[in-house]
Every structure is written in structure tokens, then in C-alpha cells.
Write a structure and sequence with these properties.
single chain, seven-stranded mixed β-sheet, elongated, alpha+beta
Length: 219
């Protein structure tokens, strides 16, 4: 046993022993905590990297076939991109020119382009005897395919105003959309000092042909 200079015995301090024990035990615990933090950091970092790689790349816009999606917008992997209002106006003018032809009773001439079997065409009937399913807005809808020749001629007569519409006078006042699904408003002469306001909706197929889904007048 140790003693002081005066011979008094000196005992071990309990507090000092406890502190020494804590110091000795603290080193392994510190290493363990550090290793645990490193493992957690690697786990979190790896999870973020895997999640980032697993996020799918957004598909390119467009998709489908020659037929339009709901609302008349054509979507397809070969769908035409961009917007060419001049082509839309040309399509409507050509349609009215066909409608003005008394011999144009063939549906392939009436509906230019390759229409989807589910396509329907909305028009403004001249009278209650015109074909098609009546709509609340006063228009009528007919299918693009399978329509009898007499019904085709009746629809064409209505679109052309019984020959009163002059296609070469058509002037576009407003356009919207893209080649995949477009809409335009226009005015066209339908007699001496008589002008009709109209709206056409359609789309261009991947080959560039036009399909009209709607041609109505706001008289």
C-alpha cells in the first residue's frame, strides 16, 4: 500500500477507477458506432442510387395508329409532330370542294385519309331527314365507314349547303392544336352577301393525309 510523505496510507479512488474503466470501454464502443454510421451511410447512398436508376425514362410524346384518340387527337409512335395550319385549311377546303361535287358519293373521296373504324363525323344537318345521331348542340354524327351512298350524299349536301358554299372563299380566323389533333374556325361564303361561320376538327395521319372529325356551322 502506498503512503504519503507523512506515512498515511493512500487508497485507490473509486471514482478514478470507474473513469478509467469507462475510458477503456469507450474506445471499442466508439469504433463500433463509427462503423455502424459508415454502414448506414453506404446503405442509404446505395438505395438512392438504385432508386434513381430504376426510375423509367418518360416515353416520347405520341403513340398509336392512324385513328385518333379521344377528343380527336391522334397519338402514335409514327404520329406527325408539329403544326401546319396551312395543311389544315387545305384539308377543309378540299373536303368542301368534294362535298360540292354532285358525283362525290364515294366514302373514300368523302373522308380523305385512312379513318379509324371508330371515327365519327359531326356535321350540321339541313333538316330532320338528314342521317346521323342527333346531338344536343344541334349537330348530327355519322360513322366514317359503312354509310350507305344515299346517306353520304345527304351529308355532303348539308356540308355544302346544297351547293351554296364556295370553298375557295374559305378564310381561317383561328387555329389551335397540332397535326395530331387540330381545330380551326373559319368563315365561308354561302350566297350573295351571306357568310357562314364554321369550325372544323381533324387530324393528319402519319402519311400526312387529313381525316375530318367535325365540320359544323354556327349560322
Amino acid at each position: 500500500m502506498n503512503s504519503t510523505r507523512r506515512g498515511r496510507p493512500v487508497g485507490h479512488s473509486i471514482h478514478r477507477d470507474a473513469l478509467a474503466d469507462l475510458r477503456r470501454a469507450g474506445k471499442p464502443a466508439g469504433f463500433f458506432l463509427l462503423a455502424l454510421l459508415v454502414v448506414l451511410a453506404l446503405f442509404v447512398g446505395g438505395g438512392v442510387l438504385v432508386a434513381h436508376r430504376s426510375v423509367p425514362t418518360p416515353p416520347a410524346q405520341g403513340g398509336g395508329t392512324d385513328g385518333p384518340a379521344e377528343g380527336g387527337a391522334h397519338e402514335g409512335p409514327d404520329a406527325p409532330h408539329g403544326a401546319d395550319p396551312a395543311a389544315w385549311q387545305e384539308a377543309v377546303t378540299a373536303f368542301l370542294t368534294t362535298a360540292d361535287d354532285p358525283g362525290a358519293a364515294d366514302a373514300s373521296r368523302w373522308f380523305p385519309g385512312a379513318a379509324d373504324p371508330t371515327d365519327r363525323f359531326a356535321y350540321t344537318p339541313l333538316g330532320p331527314g338528314d342521317p346521323g345521331e342527333r346531338q344536343d348542340d344541334g349537330t348530327a354524327q355519322v360513322p366514317h365507314t359503312g354509310l350507305p351512298g344515299s346517306d353520304v350524299r345527304a351529308v355532303l349536301d348539308a356540308v355544302s349547303g346544297d351547293g351554296a358554299v364556295a370553298p375557295d372563299t374559305l378564310a381561317v380566323s383561328e387555329t389551335s392544336g397540332s397535326d395530331a389533333g387540330w381545330s380551326l374556325r373559319f368563315v365561308v361564303r354561302a350566297g350573295d352577301d351571306v357568310w357562314w361561320q364554321g369550325r372544323a376538327v381533324g387530324y393528319l395521319t402519319p402519311s400526312g393525309r387529313a381525316v375530318l372529325l367535325r365540320l359544323v356551322y354556327e349560322k
